[in-house]
Amino acid sequence: MKISINGLHKAFESRIRLGVMSALAVNDELDFNALKEYLDVTDGNLASHLKGLEKEAFIGVEKSFVGRKPNTKYFMTKEGKEAFNDHLKALEKLIRGVAE
Amino acid sequence: MKKEQDYIRDIAEIRSMMERSSKFLSLSGWAGILAGIYALSGAYIAYQFLGFNPDTIDYSPTLSSLSFIMILAIIILILAIGTAILLSSKKADKRGEKVWNTTSRRLLASMAVPLVAGGILILILLSSGLIGLIAPLTLLFYGLALYNASKFTYDEVRSLGIIQIILGLISTYFITYSLLFWAVGFGLFHIVYGIYMHIRYER
Question: Does this complex have an ipTM over 0.90?
């Protein structure tokens, strides 16, 4: 897990990863298409970012079938929740530092 | 190294994503106003031209006027739902969202359960001739549906739901005035709510 000097997670530097984490923070689980709609990105782009987050163990994947179509659902892991909260705290601190 | 502006943008991004992915915010205020107007005119037609004014629980209008009232009710319902879908999809377009997404599906599912339960109950009562209960019960179950659905949309929907529930209960007691309460709940409060939402979120 890489953390930069100011407490921000490197994993959340990309806008798409940040978006995925935000959406999963308020939803128990979301499928690939829902995430794609919210983020407005291509399949490949989203898939590679999701894989990245999965590798960090920040999100979990649950594969199933709806009829004959594969349906992949994503949810946030405990590690992911902690990392995301830390990231938010770090962001808050930085902004407060700017304001003061 | 990122700049301060980037951090602020990140936070804004997080907020907007949390909101968009958990709440359906394309509900249109105008749809509420129009639904209220349809309801008021429907109640007026039912009262004035079809002589519909239940004053007891087992109120019995003539059979032909009852079927006219059912048709009238269905027309109002279709008009109101159609307007809501049309205006909401317009608003969703403007916000760059789709009207049929995970959030709107959840919103509709949470509304559907109380509405279907209420609808079936009303049909059963109707078959037993308890027509007087239709107006109070539509208010009550509609209020429950709104209250339940408010988790997935604007918080104000919860208040509207509570108002409808209270009106439904009061009008069950004062059954003589149930059509009036129905007009106030579905008509007047929809219009008030629609105007409020339009001013607060759409201007």
Answer: no
